[in-house]
Amino acid sequence: MNILATVAGWCAAHVRRVVIGWVLAIVIVGALGASFGGAFQDTLTVPGTQSDRAQTFVESNIGMWSGVTARLVFHGPPGVMNSANVRNALPLAIDTVRRTKNVLDIDDPNEPGRMSADGSTIFVDVAFVPGPPPGVDAIDRLTHSADGLSQYGIRADVGGVLPEVANDPSPGPVEYLGLLVAILVLYFVFGSWRAAALPIVVAIAGVSVGMGIVWIIAGATPVSSFAPQLAGMVGLGVGIDYALLIVTRYRAERHRGISKDIAIVTALTSAGRASVIAGATVSISILGLVVVRVPFITNMAVATVLCVAGVVVAAMTLLPALVVRWDARITTVRRTGRVPMNWATLIRAVVAKPVRFLMASFVVVAAIGVPAFALRVGFTDASSASSRSTERVAYDTLAAEYRAGANASLMVAIDLSKALPPRRDEIAKLVRSAISQSGLATFVGRPLFGQQGEQALVRFDLVAAPSSLDAQRSLDALRKTVVPDALRGTGSVGWVGGPTATKIDLARRVGSSLPVLILAVVALSVAVLMRSLRSVVVPIKAAVLNLLSLLAAYGVVVAVFQWGWLRSVIGLSNPVAIDAFVPVFMFGILFGLSMDYEVFLMTRIREAYDGGADATASVVSGVSDTAQVVTSAAAIMVAIFSGFIFAHDPVTKMFGVGLSAAVLVDATLIRFVVLPSTMAILGNANWWWPRRKV
Question: pTM to 2 decimals?
Answer without folding.
Answer: 0.82
